Amino acid sequence: MIPICHHTGQYQTVTPTNMRDRQCANCVPGQFQDQLNQLECKPCPKGHSMSVPKASSCSQCPPGNYQDDTGKSSCKKCT
Questions:
Q1: CB of 63 within 8 A of CB of 40?
Q2: Residues 6 or more apart whose Cβ sits within 8 Å of residue 58
Q3: Backbone angles phi, psi at 19, to 5 degrees
Q4: pLDDT classification of 6: cutoffs 50, 70, 90
Q5: CA distance 78 to 4
Q6: How many degrees, rounded to 5, is the angle at CA 55 between CA 53 and CA 58?
Q7: Digit-coded pLDDT (tens) for 18-33
Q8: Mind listing the pLDDT tens digit for each residue in 22-79?
Q9: Which residues lie below 8 Å from residue 53, measured CB to CB, with a gap of 6+?
């Protein structure tokens, strides 16, 4: 694999014909990547969120908030 992404929070795009054409893209809010040179981002797990792109981790929902889905950019307030 040709190393392209030198920062966490990014992933390598793939072209099926040429490995040299890979480019680096940022993870979108609600996703993260904590390793280098991966082919996709990971969704934030339940109980976590991330509101900014290019994240290397997700933040745990603060007290009084929750998230019951994966891949979300914000937490929900408890009612």
A1: no
A2: 32, 44, 45, 48, 49, 50
A3: -60, -25
A4: confident
A5: 42
A6: 115
A7: 666 678 899 999 999 9
A8: 788 999 999 999 999 898 999 999 999 999 999 999 999 999 999 999 999 999 999 8
A9: 9, 26, 27, 28, 29
Residue 65 pairs in a beta bridge with: 77
For residue 22, which amino acid is it?
R
Q: Residue 1's Cα: distance from chain center in Å?
A: 20
Tokens 């009084």 label which residue? 64
Amino acid at 76: K
Q: Which amino acid is at 78?
A: C
In angstroms, the CA 58 to CA 43 distance is 9
Q: How far apart are CA 57 and CA 31, in angstroms?
A: 8
